[in-house]
Amino acid sequence: MEEQRVRSSSSSSISSSPPLHTLRHARRTAFNRAFAAVYTCAISGLLYYHALKLIHSATLSSSFFISLSFFLSDAIFAFMWASRQCFLMTIVYRDEFPENLERVLKKPDFPALDVFICTADPYKEPPMRLISTVLAVMAYEYPTEKISIYVSDDGGSELTLFACMEAAKFATHWLPFCRKKNMINRSPEVYFASNHSWCSETEKIKILYESMKARVENVLESGKVGEEYINEELQCGALSKWTDGSFTRQDHPTVIEILLESSKSKDTTGHLTPNLIYVSREKRRTSPHNFKAGALNVLLRVSATMSNAPIFLTLDCDMYPNDPQTPLRALCYLSDSKIQSQLGYVQFPQMFHGINKNDIYACEYKRIFQTNPTGLDGLVGPNYVGTGCFFNRRAFFGGPSATNVTPEIPELSPNHAVDKNIQSQPIMELAHKVAGCDYENKTQWGLEMGFRYGSLIEDFYTGFRLKCEGWRSVFCKPKRPAFLGDAPISLIDALQQCQRWMIGGLQVAFCKFRPITFGVRSVGPLVGLAYTNYSFWSFWFVPLTIYAFLPQLALLNGLTIFPKLSEPWFFLYVFLFLGAYGQDLFEFLIEGGTVQKWWNNQRMWMIRGLSSFMFGFLEFFLTRLGISTYGFGLTSKVVDDEQSKRYDQGKFEFGVSSPMFVPLTMAAIINLVSFFMGLMQVIRGSSSVEGLFLQMFIAGFVVLNSLPIYEAMVLRSDKGRMPFKTTIISTLLALLLIFGAWPYLVSLLAISTFLALK
User: Fold this and answer.
1) 654 touches 712 (CB < 8 A)
2) Which active-site residues does the annotation give?
3) Which of these, 24, 204, 321, 519, could form a disulfide with 515 (CB 3.0-4.6 Å)?
4) Judging by beta carbons within 10 Å of its beta carbon (0-12, 13-18, 19+), is residue 727 exposed, middle or buried?
5) What is the rounded (10 degree) CA torsion for 701, 703, 707, 712?
6) What is the C-alpha radius of gyration for the chain, rounded to an integer number of angstroms?
7) What average pLDDT does the segment 343-353 reach?
8) How far, in Å, CA of 748 to CA of 377, rounded?
9) Is this model's pTM higher than 0.85 or not?
């Protein structure tokens, strides 16, 4: 075993109560600390080397600017590496024992559970994915009468409401089927796509599922729900109201529909069903809606008026439950009296299905969603990642030891007991009131209460603020993934998603509660610097851009900028390169990765550095100057068959023309040219080869990482190839840079970037 058990936590270590969970420290922690000390000395030596070169360079000379560029680049490298080490100092692993839960807490005493599922666009987030997620949650191994599911439709689409109504109908057949079969895969989409024993009952339920699927997809294709269906639902009381086609997009009123009620609704075997509530908050173009954070705060308030469960789960619509025992695992921590008073949330890892064999776009984000949380868990707990998280409702109303932040009405307090039927007029009126777009005016919502506003990555910012208030969290990573979601299968979708994260990180980095100052004071230097590492990610573009272009251009001009093979400083560079990459590979393999996945991961780090990181950084500062504006773009979950086939074959999907592809293609061209020019010097036996070795190595390394770009530019003829326009523009700009017209190129790039962001 790589890790070592050091202590056990349970609801009672003194009494004979069985343990609910245990904790183990990783054995490699001591090695990580020793390596960090040695590597820090090496980095200090590198910065000293750059300082010497700066001192001995003539001011305003080319060598001075080259030395200054590398000093800046390596200083950023050093800071990002050092802050990354905060995740490796106290790595812990946990195990839960849900089978012991009922010996500690009887099932009738289980706390109520609210589930928040967010969606916004039925054309980018297919309704059938939403249906599968809703049905899998309803089939949890948890008292059904204690579960309330709230679906937030932030696009105000009648198509999404139609899909939820179909899910409510099918649930009356699906829940008894799950109970009888006692199966693990309770997402119907996944269950019917997997291999399992077939019988007449299974065939019957599959026919019902396929019939529902056909109706939903037909409605999605036509774009409108038929009037006959609407009238039928109105007559049978399934809908309290409906609107025409105006109930979509920018402006729409609050719509709340109780599709299933646990006190009344029953399945085909007579068992009660969970509550299922559809919520579309009021939206006006003249009022800020604060994106997903605003939608979650509406669900927080609406649920408080109807069920007010002390625990709630947040889910993205495409992140379906993969284990029916997941709530019980979360309860192993949330019901532990030793940690309960300070435990804000239990975070499960964000994991994905449908990723190709070698994860060419590195969409697993293994470091963010699996590796780093185990390190933070040894400090104050992992950050919130936006989905798969069980919250203590009390955490959104002030710190654990502080006085509650009092809501403006008592019905929203976490201690409020709901004593009325959820369909009663007072409850429905209050629910509509708190979902209004003007309700938050002159309140503390988004500031001191609820999910926090101020960043496009509301999950990261909210988790950070909760930590600063004194709440702890737990990282729960069972062997079977608790949730599985969809990942982008095109490069542009992956890069745009990452660009949004970069902007959100910078919004946190430069806000009033910035991690590097406020965070360090509130939760200590290790946690503060860990959150700083996340929020400063976009700064990676500076060293990555410098190393992608400057050594290669110097090589083309015969300039030596790195130590020669015979100089001692050369070995410092070798150690720093091998040490950083070796540590990264080791951590990646320890957490279940493969060498090929790791290679693709470091390649995508470089690609993001010259695209997402750069454009996110520029857009953030242009917006600060009032030149650009932020937008919140959904990552499309719709899959094209041809695109999916190319993805499964491991081919990069370029396809569309995007300014983000231009720096990538320029770097690929310049590194290829410089590498072959250096090779020519080696063949001719040039005396300067020894001094150019490191520059040739960097160029060759980039060329090796750029193979998919060369293939897309020259060898491919499918729809995923590099657009001809992008190839031509990138080639012309690269030639300008190679032949020394860089001042004009910088001006041209600045203008084109500004226009692209606008």
Assistant:
1) yes
2) 154, 459
3) 519
4) buried
5) 150
6) 28
7) 96
8) 47
9) yes
